[in-house]
Structure formats: structure tokens, C-alpha cells
Amino acid sequence: MSDRWSTDDVWALAPDASSRKAALKVAKDGSWPQRGAVAAEAGGTAAVWGECKGSGSKPYLSAVHLDDPAGPGYKCSCPSRKIPCKHVLGLLALWAGGEVADREDRPEWVAKWLGGRAARKERAAGTASKPVDPEKAAATLRKREEAVGAGMDELGLWLRDQIDAGLAEVPKHGYGHWDRMAKRLVDAKAGAAATLVTDMPSEARGDHWPERVLERFALLHLLVEGFRAGDAAGPRVRGAVRARAGITTRVEEVLADGERVRDTWQVLGMSSSFKEQTTTRRVWLRGRRTGRVALSLSHARGEQAPPTPFRSACETDTELAFYPDGHRAAPAEPPEMRPSGPPPGSSVPEALDAFAAALAEDPWLDAWPVVLADAVPARDGGWFLADASGNALPLESGDPWEFLAVTGGRPSTVAAEWSPRTGLSPLTVWDRNGKAVSL
């Protein structure tokens, strides 16, 4: 996207309200003694870069690659894990305000970063252009399924041993006990299932750990039985089982053979998580006509921001191709985003019914989007968000101060991620004037 942005476009990228507030403090001419814009060959701007004065002797090096169909790419030398960080947002705000001029000269670090992105894009294009031998691909998939099946059988035996030993033995197990089973699953090409096992030590601590451990054992057992069921489990359940076990579906296969749904897709909100040096960005969308929920996932390592063509508080008329689980999706064509108003909201019981329906197809879901209408903060020991009838869901953060700052306590439409384990995490709130703010 190389056309000039508005400041609203910039703030739509902010991961939360505090990032936007911090960015306003650095979006000043004096904070960026060195800055410039790189012109795109087809016109417009390809990239923006700048050196921001910080508290130390060295400036923070920030850059944004704008001319990429997959969405903007970000770089900053600051230690923040928020993507984009306050320096990137401040730089973009200056550029959107016309305070960053085109420059033919650029520092070496800018040229090196842009060159690296171009090289990775060329390598990816070269890999995608290679013809695929259908017979070889089918044989490779069969071997993968056989290996994962063997891993699932071993996991089933291991689970039986854990139950035979009793839950009282769980606190005595060190990390090695869980890692040994996880490594065997990795060797069996069942890396996703291995992750469920490596998370066990965190479940075996604190209050109510027996219930949490038993729940995790039950989900692992369900995964084993679901994999053994094969096609009898139904297409969406089978797709979820294979993905949770570790059999991935390439995006090229999804675009070629996946279910296609055309609708006006509204972006409900975005969230990011960081694990093992990888940032994962989740973008939740919902079709205005079909009411169907879609999840767009993107990943990036290190300082790179996960690319996404979607933007908060916007919508697009486009076609999505769905993965076999029926939830995750990829755009079948480059989406053209436009601002949108608040989405239709529901009550808490209606939101929980929708989550239950999704859980029936994928029992391993750890989060699901809900849109609550006329939501207000409520307190009963802890903080909740309540609907007009007084039904409420607990807040994950434990306090509603960001929400209150936007709404002033007035009933508002809020899109959030709901997890029975952690609570409600607001993503986007629309105030009484219909203006959206990312939290």
C-alpha cells in the first residue's frame, strides 16, 4: 500500500490504546532528526525510515515497508514487543501528516533491511513457482499420516500410564517427564500435539491444578481418539484434529481446493502473542451476510511484524478460502479495505452459544471472538463486562480502565476474544458515535 495514509489509518494499526498514546509523544519533528521516504517505482511511497532520539546515546532505528501486497512490514531497534511499536507509529503519523520528505539517499541499515525483504520475497516466489508432482506429494502425505498415527498411538499408551499412576504423582514430575513424551511426538511429525504436552508443567501448579491437568489429559485423549476415527469424525472435526496433531495444510492447497465464501468481511479485532521467538497475529473477521467467523493467522520471527492485508475497524468485499477446520481462512484475492461502523452485537448467552457451537467442531479452541452489544463494566468481587440484561463475562486483565477511558462507562459495542480459561480480552470498542478504538 503506497498511497498516502491518513492519521486514522495509522492509529488503526496501534496494538492498543497505550501504544497510540505513547506514539503521540514521539510523533514530533524534533524527535526525528534523520528521516526520509523511499519512492516506489510505480509512484507513491515504498518505505519510510527514521532515527528517533531516545534516552540513550544511540537513536532508535525505525522503518516501515509500505509497498507490499501482504501488508506493511515494520522494523525498530527498540526492545518493545508490541507490533508496531510507538516509534513506528510515531514515524508513520509524521509521514501521514506530510512531515517526512522523499530522499534518494538512505542509511546502510535501511538499504540492507529493504534488500533482505526483497530477497526473501523472491525466494518465496521461486519456491511457490516450482511444479508439484501430485504422486510424490500424495506419497509424502501418506508417510506423514503414518508417522503421526504411530505418534498418536504412543501418546494414547502414555496417557493410560499417567492415569494409572494417579494425579498425586503429577507434582513430582520434573520438566524432563513431559519433554520426553513431547520429543517422541516431534520425532513422529506430530509437533502440534507435542506443544499440548509441553504446556503441562504450567497446568500442574497453583490452585485447582488437578482439574486443569485432568482437563488437559482429556483433551489429549480426545485428540488420539479423533485421529483414529479418521473420516468418521466429519470433515470439519477431522480438519481440526489433523491440524491439532500436526498435519499442516499449505496455503496453496487451501487456495486451490478450500471452501470459498464471498461476503463483506468485517474485521472484529486483532491480537498478538509471542512464543519461542515467534510473534503470531490473529485477525478475527465475520461475514455481514453469512455471519460466519473467519480467523486469519500470520507469523513472524524476531523483530519482524506478522504481515496481514487486513486492518482494524475496516471491512472488505472479498472471497475467503477456508482451511479444512472451517475456521481459519486465507484471502483468495487482495482485499480492499474500507472503514466500517460497529458490527451487530449480541447478548452474553448468545455469544456463549456461538462459542459452544465452535467448540463442538474444535474442542481444542483456546479463544473465540464475541461481539457484545450495550456492554458496560460491572464489579462483583472482580471486574466483568455485562450486557443489557446483566449477564456478564469476567475480564482477563482484571480491570476495565482502558474500556472506561474510551466509553466513559456508557453502553458500547465491544469485540473481544473469549476463553473460559483466561476470561474476556477486549480487542475493539465502538463508542456512542460509532468510532472504533483498538484496545
From TrEMBL:
It holds the Pfam family SWIM. Residues 60-96 form the SWIM-type domain. Signal peptide: none annotated. One of its GO terms (molecular function) is zinc ion binding. Transmembrane segments: none annotated. InterPro entries: Znf_SWIM. Keywords: Metal-binding, Zinc, Zinc-finger. This is SWIM-type domain-containing protein. It comes from Nocardiopsis algeriensis.
